[in-house]
Sequence to fold (684 residues):
Amino acid sequence: MLTGEEVLEKLVSQTTVEIRNPNGLHLRPAMQFVDLASQFDCEISVSNGQITVDGKSIMQMSTLVATYGTRLQVRAEGPDAEKAVETLRDLMETSPFGEPPEGKA
Amino acid sequence: MEIKKGIAVSPGVSIGKSLIVDSEDYRIPRREIESSQRILEIQRVRNAFRDAVEELNQLEAGQGQAGSKQIRDIFAVHMRFLRDRSLRRRITDVIHAESVTAEYAVSTVLREIAAHFTDVKDAYISERAADIYDIERRLLRQLLGTKREDILHLREEVVVVARELSPMQTAGFNRDYVKGMATDAGGRTSHTAIVARSLGIPAVVALEDLTEVVRGGDLVIIDGNRGIVIVNPDEETIRQYEVYSREFVALEHKLDGIREKPSVTRDGVRVRLLGNIEFPDEAQVVLQKGGEGVGLYRTEFLYLNRPTEPVEQEQYEAYAETVRVFKDKPVIIRTFDLGADKYTQSRRVAPEPNPFLGLRSIRFCLQNLTMFKTQLRAILRASVLGPVKIMFPLITNIQELMQAKMILHDVMEDLDEEGIAYNRDLDVGIMVETPSAALTASTLARDADFFSIGTNDLTQYTLAVDRGNELVSTLYSAADPAVLRLIRTVIQDAHKTQIDVSVCGETASEPEYVMLLLGLGIRTLSLTPPMIPEIKQVIRSVTIEDCNHLAREVLAMNSERQISGYLRSAARKILPEAF
Fold:
């Protein structure tokens, strides 16, 4: 039983990030997110506190319409969950979708 | 049974199963299907996704690295959506749960997604809704495109029901099967009306929400005499209409009887009646109805409903076919009137914000010289076969006319060098359809061999009214004093310079206007072929003296309402049988 729980814990990873690019999570950044997420085997879901969507579907991601400052919870479940969450956080926080921090694209 | 009232734009009655032609340009109405049809509609959605991906791949390949990063990004986003299985599933779930058409399901789902964007305060994000609408259109184009193909291969008689019909759509209509048309939008001079009249099939427009009431395959009566459309009529109504339809055909045959009689007024003044045609096979209709030639040969059909530009030989053959039919009778070929609603917009990357004031007609030709010269070569080559004349549309100033004529001379020189025969002395005229051309008619007359007054555009540009917009279409009237004064000016200036002047707009086929035009000095009318017998009947019933008197009275009046009322009552007095 104990070993079972340990395995489960390892397979789930989650984090909360804030949208930092001024134009929000519009279609192009959503595409970058989806493309990156699709490289991982784990299941990835994203929640804005109201709805939870599949992080590998651009249609679902676009319905989050996360504007600047929105906090999103990214949750991954599967063998490479930890790496996935790390990579996606990096995309959203460290280099917010390759967009300049100010001014509209 | 449901009865809808609209505007009658082409006479006759037809009863048939409805074929609905939707357009990606308008909201797709909700239409339910039999539950057994759901599997087919779901398959259509799958095919549409597959074909849209294919189309996008080709577009991208064609673009290469030449396109900007922004455009590549847009393509990339569209591609992600088209490959998104959860999007496709959401659409097929709607079809499954609600038993609706593929078009409606695609439209609803994508509009729901777009709504997420428009609800957001952030302007940048809310504008992204436009991208979602683009994806909707991309999918609808696939769905409707295959339907359009189906129209080309009809095997049973139908009546066409649509929000509005574009030239692109009507060009594919097979007259043996399309027996009537009914549209939500449009007015007396909309494209649907013009096409229906030239095909001689009944049509009713401005029915507002007809497409939401009719389902594909419903039995529909189109009464193009009274402006009524009846959806799913009961048996008694069908019987009444069958009788009425037979009586109407009998009346038409009676009018055909005057075909051989001359077109002269009661006091012996001859009026030439020519036909407006669009397709070569309409030439026969002109002759059958007693027309004496073609006053307006629209050539845009060569461009419609095809992916590539027509080559010179194809154009030549089309013109030659028509000219041969008329032998020694005149054929006035109008150069391409593309742009605005026709052809060019759908192929532009960014549509013009104001196409009717944009790059259309002669302006478009003068900026696309290769295309223009190809057409002029084809017309000149056909000019040895009969009395061909060339007409330039939408001239607004003398420079445009001079430029167009210079290009014509260049083409003539090319033909000289190549030893190709043509008629060097062919007449070159213009359409007068802008206020600027009308006001400078005396100048233009020195360099034109003839004028043809296009009353439709002249009215639209003079009164600043879009004739296809139901909200303002009541303001559109050729009986407006401003329009009539311009028409009078053009006729007077043409007479002073002793060049021919005719009218080729819709007014030429309306009995009450015909008397006024004769009174203003017009002796040549060019009109939609099926109306020729009726207008000849009008001419044979009036005297020029009556017409002159009527014109004098009308020119002294100051309001459109007064004028149109007067014209109607005068016509009713002189021609009670025509009303």
